[in-house]
Amino acid sequence: xxxxxxxxxxxxxxxxxxxxxxxxxxxxxxxxxxxxxxxTTFFKNDHPLILELGCGKGEYSIALAKRYPNKNFIGIxxxxxxxxxxxxxxxxxxIPNVAFLRTQIELIEYAFxxxxxxxxxxxxxxxxxKYKRTKHRMTNSEFxxxxxxxxxxxxxxxxxxxxxxxxxxxxxxxxxxxHEVLYANHNIYKQEGSPDEVxxxxxxxxxxxxxxxxxITYIRFKIK
Length: 224
Known about the structure:
The chain has 224 residues and is an alpha/beta fold. Helices cover 38% and strands 21% of the residues. The chain has one domain: Rossmann fold, CATH 3.40.50.150. The protein is built from ten helices and eight strands. An eight-stranded mixed β-sheet has the order 1-4-3-2-5-6-8-7, with helices on both faces.
C-alpha cells in the first residue's frame, strides 16, 4: 500500500464514529473516557462485549457482529490503515454493534476496565517463533494476565491460527499453568463437531491457507 493511500485511510478513520485512537499517554494516565464505559457510552446497551485482538482488516469482527446483533464487538489493531476496511464497511452497512480501537495489545488493560469483557478472539496472530521474541507472543503468561484483568470471571478466550507451533505452545502453556481448556482441535475443517462460528467465518488469508490445504487450529479456554 502506497503512503498516499495510507494517509487517506488514516484521515478517513478520523471521520468514523466507530473508530477510537487514544495515544499511549492518554491510556496510561487513565484519561481514556471509554474505559469501563464501552457499553454505556458507545454501544448504549448491556450486551456482552467481545474483543478481536490483532483484527487486521476487521473481517472477523464484522462477520461476528452481523451474526450476533445482540453482542458488541471491538476489533483492536495498531495498524489503522488495515482496519479502515472493517470500519468503513460497518459505517456503510450501518452495523451498530462493532467498533475499532487503534492501540497496542500490550496496553489492553488501560483501554478496558476490570471484568468489562465477556470474550476475546485472537485470530491468526504472528506466532513469533524465534525464542527471543516470546515476549510478543499473544498467548504468553504476561498477555494471559492482561486478559484476565479485563475478562469477567467466566470469560472465554478463542485462539484460531494456522500455526501448529502456536497451537502447541499455547496448549502446553494452558495445561502447565492449570487453565481450563474447553475445546482444542488442530484441524477444525477436517474434524466433525467444530463450532460453527469457527468454521463458517473465514478471513481472506484463511481462505488462502485452506486452498493450500494448510490445517487451521482452534483452542477455546478460560484463564484461571
